[in-house]
Every structure is written in structure tokens, then in C-alpha cells.
């Protein structure tokens, strides 16, 4: 089996945010607007890819293929709403040398898509994005398309140097879009409950808390901070979420930093199976929530994580979780 280059293996981690992309605003969803991001051209139009979108494609094109600009051709149309700026995207990618036609690596093929972290994207030309990330905007679920580009534009300056690929070398990148989700809760704000912390959010959606000398609740408290309008989470479904968690302070109003595995801290979203194996507090916060909602849960020890299961949570702690419900897989 051909080993993927360092870039691809490094990027093959948990879920991703596609952020700061240009060419199609969150309100521009028409096919006409989306076609203008990267037009089809002489290079992208001569690439073919066959096979199911759930497995690595068989890609053919005449060599050497030279692409000095970014071109996109749709090989298999998808369906549903186009991907918008700021959304989470699960996609699979195969990368080929334009010069030789050799497979440089692929990521995500198997039982499910392997997403790629936005945190590894290098800024190019003042935009916090790459051609691969940019090309996802306005794609649809189930779509397969080809991007022809240079190595620098596609992945960032020097990103493929360990695979002996120069920044100016042409690449053929075949992308299969598995699914996409919200990037942050987009529901409407609801009035806070008495005795619970206030949730404040940054522009990118990252939550913070204000406790204001509140007495620590001794029973499980769950509040819908933002009411979503999407599908309802049901038992035994897998839900796509971003979350932060804090330990309720023993005295005063100061909260410690979020746990080390906070998905906002790492800029990663996670897929969580909703079933009775979850801590009771988390299970009840997710069950019945609507996609687009932001949930607040104050979880006493008996409804939280088992002792010692999360190293950053001292035994016997009451914890606070803020959870953005982004989609159902």
C-alpha cells in the first residue's frame, strides 16, 4: 500500500471547520454564484474518475498535466444545500502528481469520511484558506469533483516538500464530499434560567461563561441557550457537536480554563453516539435537542463522567458543558 505523504497523514484527524473562505457568501446559494469560485478549464476538464464515492476512485488523465491556476470540474453532481462559509465538512481526498500521474496519497476512504482540520491550513495571499478548502464552498453532499492546482495553492507553501513535490508542481486533487454540517449553533436566543451561568459567545461561536457568584446547583440542570430549528436528536443516533466544559469553582466566580479536549480550544468538532453509555447529564442534554441548538448543562458528579475517566476533571466535581448541536450523521 502506498504511504500517504506527511501532509495528508497529519491532516487526517477529527472534524473540521471551513473558515474565512471567499467566493460564496453564506447567503449565496444559487448554482450561478457557486460556479464562479473556480471555473472549469482545460486542465480540470480532462481528468476522469470512476468508482463509488465511498471508495478511492480510479483517476486517469494525460501526463504531464500542467495547471498554473485553480480549476474545478464536477465529475459527479451531489444534492441538497450547497456548503456555506463557516460550516463543518466531512470529505475525502486523493492527490496525484500532474507531472507523472502517480498517486501521492489519499485520506478518508474506508467505513466513513475522515475530515481535515482547518487548523493545519496555511494562509495564502492574505486569505486564511487554501485552494482545497476554498473549492469546498458551494459543493453539495455526494458530489465528486476534481481540482487542478499547484502544490502551493492547494495545500500551502512547502506543504508537500517532504514528498519531493515543489510548490510550483501541478497537482490533481479529486474530492468526494461526504456530508456537511453547521459550523456553530444558529438558533434563536432564549431567556436564561434562574440560578444558571450566562453563556456568552465570540463571533466564531466559541462560548464563554459568566457565573456571578451563583450557588452551585446540586441537581442536573439543562438549559437551551439557543433554540435550533433542525432535526430532533433521537436515541442511538450519532450527533455532530462542538463543546466546551468547565469545572464549577469551589469558591468565587472564576472558572478554570476549558478542559484540554474542548473542541473549540482545538478547533475540532466530534461525532458522539447518543446512547446510555454517555454520562447521564450529557445524554439528557443531547437527547431531544434540535440541530442548530446550543445547550447548557450543569452536571453534578453522579450524572457526570466516571471518576478518573477525564484527567482534567477532579473527582467529585460539578461540571458545566456548553454544547453546539451541529448535525446528525
- Fill in the CATH topology of the largest domain: Chitinase A, domain 3
Helix/strand class: mainly beta
- Give the averaged pLDDT, no decimals: 80
Query: Class of the largest domain, according to the CATH hierarchy?
Result: Alpha Beta
Helix content: under 10%
Written as H for each helix and E for each strand, in order along the chain, the element string is HHEEEEEHEHEEEEEEEHEE
Number of strands: 15
The total count of helices amounts to: 5
N-end to C-end Cα span: 30 Å
**How much of the sequence is in beta strands?**
25-35%
> Architecture of the largest domain, CATH level 2?
Roll
Strand order of the largest sheet: 8-11-14-15-12-13
Low-confidence stretches: 1-32, 111-128
Task: Describe, in plain words, how this protein is organized in 3D.
- This protein has 329 residues and is mostly beta strands.
- The chain has 2 domains: 6-181, Chitinase A, domain 3 (Roll), CATH 3.10.50.40; 188-328, Chitinase A, domain 3 (Roll), CATH 3.10.50.
- The chain has helices spanning 6-11, 31-34, 131-136, 151-155, 280-286, and strands at residues 48-50, 58-60, 71-76, 88-97, 103-107, 144-150, 170-181, 188-189, 198-201, 207-210, 221-227, 238-247, 270-273, 294-299, 319-328.
- The chain has a 6-stranded antiparallel β-sheet, with helices on one face.
- The chain starts with 5 loop residues before the first helix and ends with a strand.
